[in-house]
């Protein structure tokens, strides 16, 4: 158990983020459940974490905006008289899939905002306190598409590859302050956002995976839990792929 350290999970009202927040709550973290468009979902998740004996708080904020990030962190500090020990950069948004000719530059910027701008702004805001404490855990949720790049998906793939690069660069840069930076790289893990996907598409993907199935949000959360744990402070600059050996 991590005895009341504070974890911030972005985009945590649903899907992978909700599973990650729930697991960290069970691990003993006080969990800041960030959301932007689904405050009711976030409040329901907080109630579930509390019902299981954990501590959590829902905070609505646009984590691509530096002013909103400032308010988010001030809310955490005021509520729990502490600063964030573990940051999980999970927030995402629409992921269009079409040929390059049909993308606008704004489509690329949208992905960059979620996967580069947001982590950069959050880490910049948290670094002073983490450096002072000489402790911190930064965990980026990347994707297997950084390895098995596929056509018609270039904005998302470009942003996820860049996020993986940030992970490795920051692991070296922040090491002198005992701040670890790692990545969890899920395969296609079905969540509520995939409810309308054709079963044939799901079956085709599963056939490609050596373990012949898709992962669960809880399995992704387990990998995040490992990187977040106090006893794993000598693991940094690493990526764990949670995809049934679909990529290496």
List keywords for this structure.
7-stranded parallel sheet; single chain; 45% helix; alpha/beta; 7 helices
Q: Would you write up a description of this structure?
A:
The protein is of the alpha/beta class and 248 residues long. 45% of the residues lie in helices and 15% in strands. The protein has seven helices and seven strands. The chain has helices at 15-26, 39-51, 66-80, 105-133, 154-174, 199-208, 217-228; strands at residues 6-9, 30-35, 55-60, 86-89, 136-141, 179-186, 239-242. The chain has a seven-stranded parallel beta sheet with strand order 3-2-1-4-5-6-7, with helices on both faces. Helix 5 (154-174) links the parallel strand 5 (136-141) and strand 6. Helix 1 runs parallel beside helix 2 (39-51) and helix 1 packs across helix 7. The chain is globular and about 50 Å long.
Secondary-structure map with pairings?
Blueprint: E1 6-9, H1 15-26, E2 30-35, H2 39-51, E3 55-60, H3 66-80, E4 86-89, H4 105-133, E5 136-141, H5 154-174, E6 179-186, H6 199-208, H7 217-228, E7 239-242
Parallel strand pairs: 1-2, 1-4, 2-3, 4-5, 5-6, 6-7
Helix pairs in contact: 1-2, 1-7, 3-4, 4-5
Query: Overall 3D geometry?
Result: globular
Unreliably modeled segments:
none
Helix content: 40-55%
Q: What string gives the helices and strands in order? A: EHEHEHEHEHEHHE
**Cα radius of gyration in angstroms:** 17 Å
Question: Distance between the terminal alpha carbons, to the nearest Å?
Answer: 31 Å
Strand order of the largest sheet: 3-2-1-4-5-6-7
Content of β-strand: 15-25%
Largest sheet: 7 strands, parallel
Individual helix count = 7
Chain-averaged pLDDT: 94
| Number of E-state strands | 7
**What structural category arises from helix and sheet content?**
alpha/beta
